[in-house]
Amino acid sequence: MHSIAVFDSTLRDGAQAEGISFSVPDKLKIVKALDSLGIAYIEAGNPGSNPKDLEFFEEVAKLDLKTSKMTAFGSTRRHSTAVEDDRNVQSMLAANTPAVAIFGKSWDFHVTDVLQTTLDENLAMIRDTVAFFKKHRKEVIFDAEHFYDGIKENPEYAMASLQAAVEGGADVLCLCDTNGGGFPSEIQSVTARVVETFSTLVGIHCHNDGGMAEANTVMAVESGARHVQGTFNGIGERCGNANLCTIIPSLQLKQHWRCVPEEEIVNLTATSRMIAEIANMAFNERDPYVGKSAFAHKGGMHIDAINKSVRSFEHVDPQLIGNERRILMSEVSGRTTILNKIQRVMPELTKDSPETKHIIETLKHLEHVGYQFEGAESSFELIVRKELGKYKPFFELNHFRTIGEQPSNERFSSSAIIKINVDGQEEVTAAEGDGPVNALDKALRKALEVFYPQLKEVHLTDYKVRVLDTKDATAAKVRVLIESSDGQDFWTTVGVSTDIIEASWLALVDSIEHKLIKDMEKRMRIFL
After folding, report:
1. 55, 94 in Cβ contact below 8 A?
2. CB-based contacts of 335: which residues, under 8 Å, 6+ apart?
3. If DSSP states are collapsed to H, E and C, what string results for 396-456?
4. How far is it, in rounded angstroms, from Cα 495 to Cα 504?
5. How far apart are CA 468 and CA 479, in angstroms?
6. What is the mean pLDDT of residues 2-31?
7. What residues make up the domain containing 335?
């Protein structure tokens, strides 16, 4: 199996995405995760651009990385400035990383109209900067910015920019589709031309403005590129960068390129979710390979085919990248699918058992009144336990009260008071939050953590509200979906009511009870 050098730019290009801001501790966590996965290069920003990046490079130097090379990023020297006197160049050198990524202009329009210098001076800037870092024994990746646009308008000059980098001693010529508008056929033919022209290793860096970043990257690899740049979860400026969570398994599992160690690719899904959580971004569950929906099956005939042969509707085994097959619960799932879920609680039941028939009717009724279990299987499992008499509540609610403040104070807009009972012991707590649901969530956890300390690990990762029967206006039912995590597992629960607070409460309670049941079962397995 031949290797592809994977170059991750989540901490630099990814941080330019709207709504994304990494703290120094955030960046260090991501570096450790990427190194553990086996990513070859981690590009972490320009050490001279701001104090936060400067602090990060000081801290990351203290880490004992096993597989990844830290890479400082910056531009070629400024025009009419000696490379030794350029502050940006000196700050990159001071970062003391084994590799540097230097971007330079390969589109003549950018040279004359953006940099406002001469074409010859730009080539000298590329050559001088690369040579400077080679003199200091750095591995140099030259990012040919706007290369695919430049070669359309002035192919001779675009190729000349690569030649200047080669003359400076560049280790990699990375071709950038910076505007993200390239088509796979264009990327393929141009990349092949560069590979044929230069003996230096060729790389690819694609943006997703045309929705083809991953396809363009694969086409570049098929044309001879052996260095691939992208970000985790495809985050990046405008429409984002090529998504490494799609590219890595596509190349490694289907085209047999080694992108990460074979034993580590199983951790791809967990790493993808971890980075999304650190970035405080909603995870796209429809992402290929790593999304929850990537291997989710719903229709009865569809599920029947999967049960007979997983190849019928799955292009790879989800376990290879740490994901899982999900058979979704709904009124169209079919009796066999529902039975499989029921048998997790009571294995001896059959599809003809009275309990099975009763649960199916309960499911249909609940979906008719607004519940949706295809994205909230944890709530469905609790319903099964209740219907089968396999459920004992972990606490009882005496009462709760939420209070809204208008206008709100600077920090919180609501507060909640709650009184619960656990095995005869009462606990009363209060909490403030950003809205009544947040306040209620905090108050409930505060009360229960007295009895169940493990709930300190649990936090909400997503909260969705959908209005049902919009014709009823403000009297309409709402469906609340809550995704929770304990740092290792994720689960989703649902609540429905004409009162958004009550719907949220139902989903919150299911979320907490799911966690407590799973912990109890885990302890029982260990004991047995």
Report:
1. no
2. 351, 356, 360
3. EEEEEEEEECCCCCCCCCEEEEEEEEECCEEEEEEEEECCHHHHHHHHHHHHHCCCCHHHH
4. 6
5. 7
6. 94
7. 292-387
Strands (E), 76-217: 99-105, 139-145, 172-177, 201-206
Helix and strand numbers, DSSP H then E, in the chain: 17, 16
Closest-CA residue to 373 (of 427, 402, 337) = 337
Q: Rg of the Cα trace of the chain?
A: 27
Report pLDDT for 526.
58
Whether 250 has a pLDDT exceeding 90, the answer reads yes
Q: Look-up: residue for tokens 């030649």?
A: 163
Residue type, 504: S
Structure tokens at 522: 């885990």
Assess whether 340 and 193 both reside in one domain: no
pLDDT tens-digit profile of 433-450?
888 888 998 999 899 999
Domain count, the chain: 3
Collapsing DSSP states into helix, strand and coil, what is residue 473? helix
**What is the layout of strands, in order, in the sheet containing 459-467?**
459-467, 478-485, 490-497
CA distance linking residue 147 with residue 466, whole number of Å: 45
Q: What is the pLDDT of residue 336?
A: 63
Q: For residue 283, is it within any domain? A: no
Domain assignment present for residue 47? The answer is: yes
Please report whether residue 403 resides in a domain: yes
User: Using alpha carbons only, what angle is made at residue 154 by residues 151 and 156, rounded to the nearest 5 degrees?
Assistant: 85
pTM of the model: 0.72
Return the number of other C-beta atoms located less than 10 Å from residue 501's C-beta.
18
In Å, what is the CA distance from 430 to each residue of 87, 277, 315, 450?
54, 27, 50, 14
Whole-number Å distance between alpha carbons of 222 and 483: 39
**Residues 451, 436: Cα–Cα separation, whole Å:** 24
> Measured between alpha carbons, how far is 39 from 231 in angstroms, rounded to an integer?
11
Give the neighbor-by-neighbor strand order of the sheet with 396-404.
396-404, 414-422, 425-433
**Which of 36-50 are b and which e, b meaning 16 or more Cβ less than 10 Å from the residue's Cβ?**
bbbbbbbbbbbbbee
Most confident of 18-22, 132-136, 515-519: 132-136
Per-residue confidence (pLDDT) for residue 528, from 0 to 100: 47
Q: Which residues contact 1 (CB under 8 A, 6 or more apart)?
A: 256, 257, 258, 262
Q: Can you read off the two tokens belonging to residue 494?
A: 């649902």
Query: For the domain that residue 242 is a member of, what is the CATH number?
Result: 3.20.20.70
Q: Tell me the residue type at 445.
A: R
User: Residue 244 and residue 131: Cα distance in Å, rounded?
Assistant: 30
Task: Work out the number of other CB atoms within 10 angstroms of the CB of residue 30.
Answer: 23
Tell me the pLDDT of the chain averaged across its residues: 89
Nearest to 290 by CA among 313, 311, 320, 327: 320
Asked, for residue 284, whether it belongs to a domain, the answer is no
Q: What are the tens digits of pLDDT across the range 264-319?
A: 999 999 999 889 888 888 789 899 999 988 988 776 676 667 667 777 888 999 99
